[in-house]
Structures are given as C-alpha cells and as structure tokens.
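I am writing to request your help with a piece of structural work I have in hand. I am sending you one protein, given as its amino acid sequence and as whole-number tokens for its backbone shapes. Kindly check, if you would, that the fold set down in the tokens agrees with what the sequence suggests. You will find the record immediately after this paragraph:
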Amino acid sequence: MAISSETLFHFTPTLANLKGIVSDKFRIAYCFEQYTLDYQTHSAYYPMISFCDIPLSLAKNHINKYGSFAVGLTKDWGIRNKLNPVIYLETKSYLSHEIQSNLDHLAKMTEHLRNEFSKISSKISELAGEVVISKELSSGLVNVNNELNKRISNHAEVLT
C-alpha cells in the first residue's frame, strides 16, 4: 500500500467549517508552529492552509486530531495551485541540517547587510548635513532610509 494518495485532503472538525470551505473557499489562518531543525528550535506563526496526502485507510489518527470532515482535491489541482502537502521532518535528518544551515547563512547575510546599511545610512546623514539639498530630495532620502530599515527589520524577524 502506498503511504501517500493522489488526493490532497484538508480535514476540519465541523460540518459548518466544511460548508464554509465549499461556499467561501479556503481561508488562510496563522498557525503557531514550534519545531527543531538539527540543533535549533524555532517557533513562529505561519500563514497556512494545511493539506495532507495520507491515504484515507491510514488517516485514523489524523482524523482524530483534525476532524472527521474533509475536502479532497487531486494532486494535479494542488500542483496547478502551487500547493504542497504537509512535510514532516526528522530533527536530526540531512534535510533538517541543510535547512538549518541555510537559515544560519541567511542570518549572517542579514547581519552583514544590516551593518553595511548602517554605514550607508550614517554616510547619508553626514552628507545631508554637509550639502544643501532641496527639501524634496532630503525628504526622499529620509523615506528611502526608513523604508530600507523597515525591510531589513521585517526580513530579520522572518529569520528568527
């Protein structure tokens, strides 16, 4: 027996939820996830709609946890809609190690970019104080500076 099916299932605990999905489509929810990759524990809220590809004959525990009502859609539908069933990772697996290594690398790159941006931001402040510039240009530099700070902060939050 295959351990995955050609159908993606979304389980829900109530008939009302199922009717809502059918009439209003799926709604993304922010779900708290805590997991360990290789050696580091992560936790965050992730926007998601959870799909599994467990054959119904093996879904008893899943049904007990997530509900006995389900919508089933073909994997082809999932591929067309750029979806993936839930992936479970072993903490010490090669894949967990590679994901953690990539997260570490991204964190280092983010810190490097933050330091470089800080230098650029300081230089802009120095130049703005030394050079007479138009009010519009000065305002534009401040806006660029603020936007870059915001984007770097948002990127760093995703990595932590």
Summary: The helical segments are 15-24, 60-66, 75-80, 94-130, 135-159. The mean pLDDT is 84. Residues 7-80 form one domain. The two ends are 40 Å apart (CA to CA).
